[in-house]
Amino acid sequence: MNDPALTIFGAWLSVGLMLAVYSFLYDDNPFFKIAEHFYIGVSVGYLIVLSFYEYLIKKFWEPLQGGHLWVLIPAVMGLLIFTRYFTKLRWLSRWTFAAVMGWTAGVAIPRTISQFLLAQVDATVKPIFTVQSTPTGTDVDFFINNLLILIGVVAVLVHFFFSVEHRGPIRVTARVGVLYLMVAFGAAFGSTTMARMSLLYGRAYALKEYSSAEYFYATPILLAGIIVGLVLWRQIERRILPTRRMS
Amino acid sequence: MPAISQDPLLIRRLIFLLLAVIVVGTLLLPLGTPPMVVNQESQDFYDAVAALKPGDPILISFDFDPASKPELEPAARALLRQAFRRRLRVVTLGLWQTGIGLAAEAIEAEAEIARSRFPQEGENAYPQYGKDYVFLGWQPGQFALIVRLTEGIQGAFPREFRGAETERLPIWNGSNGEKVRTLGDFPLVVTISAGNPGIDEWIRYGRGKEDFPIATAVTAVTSPGRMPFYKSGQIIGLLAGMRGAAEYEYLLNRSEDPEKFGVTPPPLVAALQGMNALSASHFLIIGLVVVSNIMYFTSQRRGRR
Amino acid sequence: MNFLRQQFPLLIALVTGLVMIAQYYIAGEYSRDLGGKAADAYIIIQGIVIYLGIFSLLHSHIGKVTRLEAGWGYSIFMFLGIVLMLVAGFWSGGRLDEGTPYKWLYDNTIVPLSATLFSILAFFIASAAFRAFRARSVDATLLLTAAVIIMFCRVPWGEYLAGLISEEGGPAATRAIARWILEVPNVAATRGIILGVALGIVATSMKIIFGIERGYLGED
């Protein structure tokens, strides 16, 4: 598959699929739907192949061949999930769900307490000021950021604590929590913008690469093709299917 | 409905076109790479890898898919470049099934670059697959795979991606006779993380059981949410999105030592080159927010009159 | 029979949950072996769930095509994608090395499609920025201000423009402001959310283990 002709064909295939997806920006249309369904298909096919070699063979079949018969137990439990398709046998799937949920819950509790609770509380409770005696006198350092973080964490927790009515001091504290949350959401939005623009840049770079003579100007030619296709589709939709507007 | 939205569909399409023109324009114009200033969390990421000694094992988990490629693949490539340059034992795996192809490609490409720098004969040949680097592959289960790794790496992956028996690979054996068995035996674990499963799961299920330093490259979307872990010391280095990857590329390019190897590979620029497009698109968004608010307040005032 | 349908699943959840909590605190080879096998068992079950999902998808689309439902033609393209990838994948023996048909198809279909579908969001963010982000209240103003500061200060052009005002102080100020927002109010709020979520996870997990939460069992 290192053949130059296949490389160029691959480039044209990529560009065609990319532009078909971008045609959604004009309107939902058949090109986009074809690309979307094709994507689901290749993803599923990829997953079947990958899971066959990485999972079925390496994780199940070979250990079974090697005498580790215990793998049959989870295999049978996994197959019990399929009983959900049969009304009378559906209850058997509960055994598998119960085992899975029990394992997940048991694994989660100590690890969550350790890393998400204790470690984070430890990082929150930091010195707000320190007093040190020096040869010249007493040195007092005030760590305002530590204080602000402590206030913020408590305020946000109070905001999400609904077992007590938010009145008086609780209401004020919860309101402070909301202000902290707004700043955090603003930072999140700013960062989300950066992320999405990065993804757009990545695709724009790829389309630019494929617009060169080396790839026989795939991008401009296919872009023109998609535009013509969209115009024709719109004409067909207006004349033959006037009541069925894709929006 | 405010007066600004006379034809919302037209305005929407104009905005789409404007964004496309700006991003494509910054690509086509010869703007060069803008000067980079490195943030502390990116410097910490670089320093964490630089602190490892030749022969130390490092675990790299490729927890992303092609959707996050522009943000995370440059970071992954740069990390592999630095890891091979330090002559580390590089153990890799992936938690996201559609990212396995990207992972396999990046690992082999950087290994090939490393081969151009190090002797290729005898015992000193570096890097050799199975001895100096290995790609374990993927399995279903997501966070369960991390839990499994804390109980034994070789048992978690009986065979590596190319099919060899993992237990017998020489990569697990250190120069002092110590053997890598679990996550706790790695002086550094790095996850290139796009979401779930990713850095949160590595912290909770990995560090929740074993004590090991972890650094991460994340998408810009998730980076603010990971700052509490960075500030608490649970993460010792953080690359935030394409900007973080660009800073890392800058650090690596700057630290290349042509005298040491005699061969300098092409500089890493995948993320650096995107900084102009990123800046321009950000300014467009800021401009749109400002303009829309001006129009909103103007129409509010007109409405009150 | 009622015991096998109702109480036995709850007993399974109780025993597996308590055993996994105990295993966390017990060191040693046997504990490690048990933990490893339990995780492997979960992975094996999850692998089968993948095939359940695939079966469900195929079943749905086959029904769509055989009954000629609206949009059935698009399902043909889905089946085309599956067949092409299966042929390429098994022909390559599952190897994703450069030059194999599997890798070629992965590079030229999955990578561009996956990346492009998510990159569309950039356009919708731009559109939303113009249409929806109005400073209607104190909260909204705070959110917008933080967002604009982050967007301005975290890109090289922002630092460059600040440098035009003050060559040394400008870029340093932009970095300091963005850093303060991310390291103080953002950390405080996000940490509060993390703590809240963690408490929720622990509480829900306890409820599952002790049979108080039974929603996962489904209806009778």
Radius of gyration of chain B: 23 Å
Mean pLDDT, all residues of chain A: 92
Total helical elements of chain B: 11
SSE ordering of chain B:
HHEHEHEHHEHEHEHHH
Q: Which assembly state applies to the chains in this document?
A: heterotrimer
Average pLDDT over all residues of chain B: 92
Binned, the helix content of chain B reads 40-55%
With strands numbered from the N-terminus, the spatial order across the biggest sheet of chain B is 3-2-1-4-5-6
Largest sheet of chain B: 6 strands, parallel
Note the topology.
The complex is a heterotrimer of chains A (247), B (305) and C (220).
Chain A: H1 4-22, H2 30-65, H3 72-80, H4 93-124, E1 129-134, E2 137-142, H5 144-159, H6 169-209, H7 218-240
Antiparallel strand pairs in A: 1-2
Chain B: H1 8-28, H2 40-50, E1 57-63, H3 69-85, E2 89-94, H4 100-115, E3 133-135, H5 143-150, H6 153-156, E4 189-193, H7 199-207, E5 214-218, H8 223-231, E6 238-240, H9 241-254, H10 258-261, H11 275-304
Parallel strand pairs in B: 1-2, 1-4, 2-3, 4-5, 5-6
Chain C: H1 2-25, H2 29-66, H3 72-91, H4 101-131, H5 138-153, H6 156-165, H7 169-183, H8 185-209
Would you kindly provide a written description of the structure presented here, covering whatever features stand out?
The complex is a heterotrimer of chains A (247), B (305) and C (220). Chain A is mainly alpha-helical and 247 residues long. Chain A has helices at 4-22, 30-65, 72-80, 93-124, 144-159, 169-209, 218-240, and strands at residues 129-134, 137-142. Chain B is built from eleven helices and six strands. By secondary structure, chain B is of the alpha/beta class. In chain B, strands 3-2-1-4-5-6 form a six-stranded parallel beta sheet, sandwiched between helices. In chain B, helix 7 (199-207) links the parallel strand 4 (189-193) and strand 5. Helix content of chain B is 47%, strand content 10%. Chain B is globular, with a radius of gyration of 23 Å. Chain C is mainly alpha-helical and 220 residues long. Helices cover 81% and strands 0% of the residues of chain C. Chain C has helices at 2-25, 29-66, 72-91, 101-131, 138-153, 156-165, 169-183, 185-209. In chain C, helix 7 (169-183) runs parallel beside helix 8 (185-209). Classes of the chains: A mainly alpha (247), B alpha/beta (305), C mainly alpha (220). Chains in contact: A-B, A-C, B-C. Chains A and B meet through helix 2, helix 4 and helix 6 of A and helix 1, helix 3, helix 7, helix 8 and helix 9 of B.
